[in-house]
Amino acid sequence: MARLADYFVLVGYDPGKRGSGDGQGQILQRFPEKDWEDNPFPQGIELFCQPSGWQLFPEMNPPSFFVAVLTDINSERHYCACFTFWEPLDSSQAQSHPRNGGEEEEEEASSPVQPTQLFAPKSLVLVSRLDHAEVFRNSLGLIYTIYVDGMSVALESVVGNLLTCTIPITGGAQRTICLGAGDRQVIQTPINDSLPVSSCSVALLFRQLGITNVLHLFCAALTEHKILFLSSSYQRLTDACRALLALMFPLKYSFTYVPILPAQLLEVLSTPTPFIIGVHSIFQSETQELLDVVIADLDGGTVSVPECVHISLLPEPLLQQTREALSMVLDPELEVADLAFPPSTISASSLKMQDKEIRAVFLRLFAQLLQGYRWCLHIIRIHPEPVIRFHKAAFLGQRGLTEDDFLTKVLEGMAFAGFVTERGAPYRSIDLFDELVAYEVKRMRAEEGNKQKVLRHIRELAEKLYKNENPYPAVTMHTVKKPKEGHHLRAQQKPFPRLDEGLVQWIIDQATAKLQTAPPAVKAEVKCMVPSGPPIAAIMERNGNAMANSARRLEVVRNCISYVFENKMLEAKKLFPAVLRAMKGRAARQCLAQELHLHVQQNRAVLDHQQFDFVIRMMNCCLQDCTAMDEHGIAAALLPLVTAFCRKLSPGITQFAYSCVQEHVVWTNIQFWEAMFYCDVQNHIRALYLDSAEESHLEEEDNQEAKSALEIASEQLRLWPTMSKEKQQELIQKEESTVFSQAIHYANRMSYLLLPLDTSKSRLLRSSGLGDVESVSNSFVTNSIAGSVAESYDTESGFEDAESSDVANYVVRFINRFVDKVCTESGVTNEHLKGLHVMIPDIVQMHIETLDAVHRESKRLPPIQKPKLLRPSLLAGEECVLEGLRVYLLPDGREEAAGGSVGGPPLLPAEGAIFLTTYRIIFKGTPTDPLVGEQVVIRSFPIASLTKEKKISVQAQVDQFIQEGLQLRSCTFQLLKIAFDEEVASDSAEVFRKHLHKLRYPQHVRGTFAFTVGQSPKQAMQPKAKEKNPSLRTLSKNLVKNAKKTIGRQYVTRKKYTPPTWDQRGSQHFPEDNEDEISVSEEMDRSTLTPSTTIRPSDKMTINHLVERACCKDYQRLGLGTLSSSLTRSKSEPFRISTVNRMYAICRSYPGLLIVPQSIQDNTIQRISRCYRQSRFPVVCWRSARTKAVLLRSGGLHGKGVVGLFKSQNAPSPGPSQTDSTSLEQEKYLQAVINSMPHYADAGGRNTLSGFTSAHMSSTGKWGSIRASGRGSGYALSVDIGSRLAGKDLLAAPHNGTAAEPALLRPHRASLYIIGDKSQLKGVKPDPLQHWEVVPIEVFDVRQVKASFKKLMKACVPGCPSTEPSLAYLRSLEESEWLSQIHKILQISVLVVELLDTGSSVLVSLEDGWDITTQVVSLVQLLSDPYYRTLEGFRLLVEKEWLSFGHRFSQRGAQTLAGQSSGFAPIFLQFLDCVHQIHLQFPMEFEFSQYYLKFLSYHYISNRFRTFLLDSDYERIELGLLYEEKGEKKGQQVCKSIWEYIERLNKKAPVFFNYMYAPEDGEVLRPYSNISNLKVWDYYTEETLSEGPSYDWELSQGQVEPVEEDRQDTSAPQTKRKIIWPCYDSRRRLEPDAISRLLEELQSLEVELGQVPERWKETWDKVKASQRTEARQEGSRTPSSLLMSSGLSHHRRSLGVYLQESGVGSSLNLSLDSDTSSTSTPSSGRQGGRRSTSTLYSHFQMAESENRSYEGSLYKKGAFMKPWKPRWFVLDKTKHQLRYYDSRMDTECKGVIDLAEVESITPGAPTMGAPKTVDEKAFFDLKTTKRVYNFCAQDVQVAQQWIDRIQSCLSDA
């Protein structure tokens, strides 16, 4: 029984005290006056009666009622029911305290009339520990009614009765009470008091806030956030708080809980602890600045969560299910809202019922959240008090919710700790929740998703809850008197009387005496064993498929372990990688632990070294995936095993497994140790009681086994009261000693796992990766974790102490802390605890001593063989930045190296190390496959070419488990896919990445390898000006700033242009100039604005430098203007070299000297340059020697400008039709270019651009063939060029609107074609009156090139293997569109070549003039001018067009940090690829080999040379690069220029030389550009794993020499067969082509004979010369080259390709052994010794020359003035040629007519000296591009046959 009310208090307004403006309350009377013993009087009631402060009001308010909740120090809640009414204040009091509520105060002050009356509040308060709000409301109401209505009942007796009324707490009793004023109330008590009572507060809360908001609040409360309710009603605040607590059942809220917080206590809100508090909304403004409080506004229905608060919500399926269930309960109409015929009546339950339904939803939620929780309880003590712990990690692990934020926080929270204490006990009374979680979970699983069933279950639960609160359905009506209407408005109300304390006390005393005499009404509590419910595993249903899969894996794990223990090591080794892979799965790890456990039980714990190693590796792999929480108990299962498995190191010294598995976080986690300890203690205690039970019931053994610890505990607790005192004492002691012995055991275990094997190291690195990353690489890493232990847990000892003290102290402290915690929790006596503390240091010390011996011995063990790390050879000046990190090189998508379809040994994966040098990233190692182990695998690439680096996680293919990997991709078409070995700490890998990044993107070009190489000695040799300048960087910045300013001005004002002041820099540019500082700016103005013909002498020095540049040499070669000594211009020249840009003021990216038309003044140039992007105005870069047409280049146009010229369609003349002066000047400029051409006025030129006839197509030079496959007749189409290049082959209407036929030969050919971007030239129409025509074409931009290149890299070097490599390769190659871009560039270039060849000039004006423009212009020159196809010419071409004209190498190659974001754009590489395509089609036209092109492609990005750094000559001068080379060449030093390097190398060896070089004079090449004619460059796909890329010549040469000598010494007995692997060996070196081979042999013979070896070039030239003389002696036509007579002209195309492909890279490779090549071939008609190398080739030729499609005798007219002679003619379709011989028997061919050059066959006429007897019609002429051949046959038929044959041959081609 309990008192209904403990205290009755009367609180009134205290007129005496002035507070802070507000009044204060005072307790007028309280009953009983002395405190109850069991329940002291709560403090602060006067604050809670008027939560918003005591104030006076000018009028009477109606009485109010609410319940406040106070919590005392024992966390008992007291419910204070406050009934407040207002009483008038007498005037004397009012005077003394004039404060009123709110605004009335001012009125009062201002009005002279004093208000007659003020009213003060007075409160009646009941304090109770029971929450019966309605009863309190009625009782206080009754007291008030008696007072107001003046009823004749003594208030004292009512109060006395109220205070003495007792009711049962629980049990569902019904009690009627009467206070003696004719009233009657019925109180129902809940059946089970553990379930909260909520009447309808929960339903109201949902009504006010809505489902989502309440769920947020619910989660916030469970995860311990601060929650604040706001409302203007006190009662609602109380209800809302009560509702929230009811929802949290079965968890109890244990933090601050104040449903109504008084104004004076508002600062409580800033407390750091969580709370649930309600505040009246008038204080809303005070709550604004609370940053971390979730505020729920009940009146507004909002919940606001501040930004810094993250509320973890329920885990997913549950959240959704809860939402759905709630909406079914709260909004049943939602379900049927869409029905066509909704049911007529559907209504929500009554509020009270709805309230219970909502609570039922939450009860279900908790049952699902906590299902199976009892299986994770550890009972550590049973007697005298049960002590229970919850194994959180195991619970989360089994539920699969380790990652879940919400549940983790709930389990860590205080509420859950209370839950475990309260509900963990195995023997107690149970309630609804216990039944639900034990019995109903299965049902809930089954009903998931079935809404009707779910709703039914909710209703069942709701019924139970409702029944619990209202056990009796028919409640008798209350009768309580209420005051009459309007009672509170009565004016003359006497104040509430003072009650007689004595009388009340007497009533109370009487009642208490009566109670004491009455027998105690004890309601017997029904205790029972708490049901556990099914274990978690039984609930979580499994996926069948996964099970089958894992069963197979577990089989593998079991087999592997049994192999290990049966010592079948090879078998075990095979399975090992699969086992390590399986270890990712939980089942496999558990299986491993079980299997090992079985072997321990069979006494197989002592292993030999190999077995030990296997077991350790498996354990490590198993543990490495465990988190520190060890949620699946793997570490727990392995813990007993690591102290069991061991190996004998030497007699008496044993090494246990624990010394090798310390590297895991789990051992440092104190929660793990606690859980383990409790688990073991529970097992021992269970055993303790099982044993005693078994002695008595041996026969019941089977049943006993199954009993869980909790069941035993509940049994014991049931028996406890019945035992004798001695027996109880004995049990307590037994339990305690069990716990104590476990504690000692664990102290030992912890010292095993925490002390490192090598304890001598006093300071340990924190291997949890917390140390400084930079320092890790070179300091000692141990294999223990004690370091991180000290850091994480040793808070009190402080960090410094941890640094200096040694390992033993850490460990002792760690164990002490553990022991303290577990022993106090499990009730070990203090004496025992002290004993433990004494023992621990000894245990640790003993262990350290045994470890020392083990460490000493283990060092002597032969380590497990890992291959030695091989050092890579480095270049001169290249330094190692990071020593080798042990890694595995994994196979990527290229299958050759991995053995793939090609066959051959799998060279990858290889094991070795990765090195980072200042220049390259190098992997060097050996294949892991034992069959190929002795090979060395090298893969490397320059750091500067790195394009992408990403982390990858590696499947352990290698039989190690590997932590992490990196994939490094390079634009030299190389991919390093590496996985770090386990010995590499993850921070070393991080250091590697950091360094790599630093080297890849230096801050400035000065940081690149080309500058830093061999740095220390070079520093002194920088230009002198350095000392003066503050720093280069700032200088260039200022310079750019000045330039920007001036450029800015130049646009706005067209005044005199003053360029930036360069005087400060004069000395740096031109070191010779120091004595004569020129003031450049004046001088510039003169030359800019006055057409001065001479240059001031002070400027000559600067010019001299420019003259030496490549451009200038080339201009002189082309005759494009000279700089004579007086620098006067020869007026006859149409072009001049202008110095207008020598200070780089007009165009920063152009060279200093430019070719412009003679007639154009420098100041005009300046204005013209503004129309073009980047000021790159048109300049001449090449002139055709034959047609005198010129090639110009420029940037694209700005919006206005030239385009305007072309849009003036109706202008009558090309005269000054424009108003804009610049465009006029531009027009003049273009006209000047046109005027420079000797025959521009000849308007009736041979043909027009729009339609070449086939005849003119082949005017000079060679086409691959006239008819390119599938394109009608090649370029001879009457289609507008622009549209053709845009890929539209035929347009419906030709461009000038006339029919297509006449357009074929338009009489007008433009003198200048401007090739521009289609998008810029929209709407431009050709103007027939002007001499230029615009050709709009579509080009791709840099972005597309980048994207295409990325795809090309992925196609050629895929990151991972695909199922059908060849298909995937071709598909991705096509998707990359790389070849179509090359096709486009070649197509445009061939078009321009055509135009130039027909005598028109061309201006290429695309994008900014430095990407595609450069590609096209360079290719055009290469195709048109044979000079550029020599080594020297190609260098010049690149220097001129790419370097001087400012292709942005740094920008496009992303060489510095600034370019990092823009990425790599291979514009130059694309150009080299185009050259490679042309080289393939015309192998005899180039002096350099394919290897030369690859060499350039590799080194233009490698940053080994300075040549390709920076974006323009201007920048190079600024860094002092351009002119330094001359002075420095003397010393033998690292080459800075790639050209120098190539020159030196070319002198030594013929690597860059093409032996097939046999140029024809003035040859213009026209390559095929169709995609079908293009080949993927083998530079992209080949690799040489034996030596890495072969482009760093010193490195690749160095390695092979010894092998060669080796072979020669032992060559006699051995076979000459060599195995050459694709992708491993360098075929070019192991199997050189015949000529290289002969040159090599020659050289080695010379060395043997002691002669000075001759340079290869000289030897080669001699051979060629001698071959010429031999040929002369034979009397045949002089061949123009060693290889073939020029008659073969175009056939070298097809033939050359065969030659090409038989060799490997560039050089021709006949692969003949020396003996074969020493004799000539029979077909040459000469047997005997070798006379010259020519026989090799004639052999090659003759083999094919036997293809005779048609032959016969014809007369042929000789050359000029020669007679007609009969010759034997052979028509060869295969070779596409007509050959002739002296007679039928002759084998020496006398001449060849190439059919590709044939233009027409026409009937001829007999000329002088022709055979007389023949019919005139038997004559026919064959017209070729070079000459006309006259033939004569025996008769007309034969002639006709020949003509037909030749015609068909031509049309077949």
Please give a structural write-up.
By secondary structure, the protein is an alpha+beta fold. Helix content is 41%, strand content 13%. It contains 65 helices and 44 strands. The strands form twelve sheets. The protein has a seven-stranded antiparallel sheet with strand order 25-24-23-22-28-27-26. A hairpin with a 7-residue loop joins strand 8 (174-177) and strand 9. Helix 9 (316-330) packs antiparallel against helix 11 (351-369) and helix 50 (1412-1424) runs antiparallel to helix 51. It is elongated, with a radius of gyration of 51 Å.
Category from helices, strands and their pairing: alpha+beta
Strand portion: 5-15%
- Chain-averaged pLDDT: 74
By DSSP (H or I, 4+ residues per run), the number of helices equals: 65
Largest sheet: 7 strands, antiparallel
Straight-line distance between termini: 117 Å
Rg result: 51 Å
Shape estimate = elongated
Helix content: 40-55%
Sheet with the most strands: spatial strand order: 25-24-23-22-28-27-26
List segments where confidence is low: pLDDT < 50 over at least 5 consecutive residues: 94-114, 538-546, 698-705, 762-805, 1016-1099, 1125-1129, 1206-1219, 1240-1307, 1525-1532, 1599-1614, 1676-1745
- The beta-strand count equals 44
